[in-house]
Design brief:
The chain has 176 residues and is α/β, with parallel strands linked by helices. It has helices spanning 17-26, 58-68, 87-95, 123-131, 137-141, 151-154; strands at residues 11-12, 15-16, 34-35, 49-50, 74-78, 102-107, 110-111, 115-119, 146-149.
Amino acid sequence: MGRDKTAADFLFRGEPLAARVARLMREACDDVVVASGDGVRMAWLDLPQVADEAPGSGPLGGLVAGLVRARHLLVAAVAADMPFASSAVLRLLSSEADGFDAVLPLSERGPEPLHGVYARSAAAPLAAALAAGRPAVRDAVAELRTRLVEPSEWAGADPTGRFAWNVNRPGDVPGP
């Protein structure tokens, strides 16, 4: 993108992208905590923040940090660049979590680990993957007991599948 998608001035449909995602998360979660890399850079959201488990460890480091500090047994994790995060999909995933470390929707790209639900107990195996030098979220999640939710199962919660879309290029952001 060439700039920080989580900055307060990075707008999506007139709203800061990260604020939009946080607002959508509030619809599904009792607590919203931001894994902001350094634990301070997104103070403008006025939400609790956690620093990545290891500096510079990216999304997996943020996921581990959030799980380690979670107050609840289940944690919904959504990337800050997913402007159509779905509280309905997250609730569906959480209803399928019994006995699993992760419950992830399948999209046309495969499992969506950054729009999923994790058991707090997934922190240890994910931290082990991070410590072993495997920082890719998809690779680390592959080692968990994971329930994959097929499109036919989540379509009732989000028939469009837009929950899995993220902002990657400047052209993905509509004009004012």
